[in-house]
């Protein structure tokens, strides 16, 4: 099962302080909008998202259709197909993609320790 590009979405208290902290660790801004309180940062193949005031806990994020540079892949597994595979394996989904649609969609679930996992397809 290919879930796409991986990143950790961090819930931060002060996006400017967090940006500076991660820049000092060698991360560079890849995308986002600091005026909207969110940034995507990258260091090598490691990607983190900084989100102020958007959600409570940190989230493991997968993006079908993207590589680690947020570039479109020629071939990928659509989120609706991933969802069918997850359901067939007995995963309990907290939210689901509408299987009657195409394009962007997302689903969420938790791992056995309660960590939130977001599969978020942007295309």
Quick overview of this protein structure:
The chain has 123 residues and is α+β, with helices and mostly antiparallel strands. The chain has helices at 15-24, 79-88, and strands at residues 5-12, 28-33, 38-43, 46-52, 59-63, 93-95, 105-110, 116-121. It has 2 helices and 8 strands.
Offer a few descriptive terms.
single chain; alpha+beta; eight-stranded mixed sheet
Written overview of the protein:
This protein is α+β, with helices and mostly antiparallel strands and 123 residues long. Helices cover 16% and strands 38% of the residues. It contains two helices and eight strands; from the N terminus they run βαββββαβββ. It has helices at residues 15-24, 79-88, and strands at 5-12, 28-33, 38-43, 46-52, 59-63, 93-95, 105-110, 116-121. Strands 2-3-4-1-5-8-7-6 form an eight-stranded mixed sheet, covered by helices on one side. A hairpin with a 4-residue loop joins strand 2 and strand 3. The radius of gyration is 15 Å and the shape is globular. The model has no long low-confidence stretch (mean pLDDT 96).
Average pLDDT metric: 96
State the separation between the terminal residues, measured CA to CA.
18 Å
**Element order: H for helix, E for strand:** EHEEEEHEEE
Portion of residues in beta strands equals: 35-45%
The tally of strands reads 8
How many strands, what sense, and barrel or not for the largest sheet?
Answer: 8 strands, mixed
Shape by Cα distribution = globular
Unreliable runs: none
- Tally of alpha and pi helices: 2
Strand order of the largest sheet: 2-3-4-1-5-8-7-6
Task: Specify the helix fraction band.
Answer: 10-25%
- Return the structural class: alpha+beta
Radius of gyration: 15 Å
């Amino acid at each position: 099962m290919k879930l796409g590009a991986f990143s950790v979405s961090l819930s931060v208290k002060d996006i400017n302080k967090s940006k500076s902290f991660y820049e000092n660790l060698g991360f560079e801004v890849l995308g986002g909008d600091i005026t909207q309180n969110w940034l995507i940062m990258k260091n090598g193949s490691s990607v983190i998202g900084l989100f102020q005031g958007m959600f409570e806990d940190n989230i493991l994020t997968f993006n079908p259709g993207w590589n680690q540079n947020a570039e479109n892949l020629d071939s990928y597994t659509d989120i609706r197909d991933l969802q069918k595979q997850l359901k067939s394996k007995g995963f309990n989904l907290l939210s689901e993609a509408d299987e009657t649609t195409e394009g962007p969609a997302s689903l969420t679930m938790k791992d056995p320790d309660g960590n939130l996992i977001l599969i978020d397809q942007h295309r």
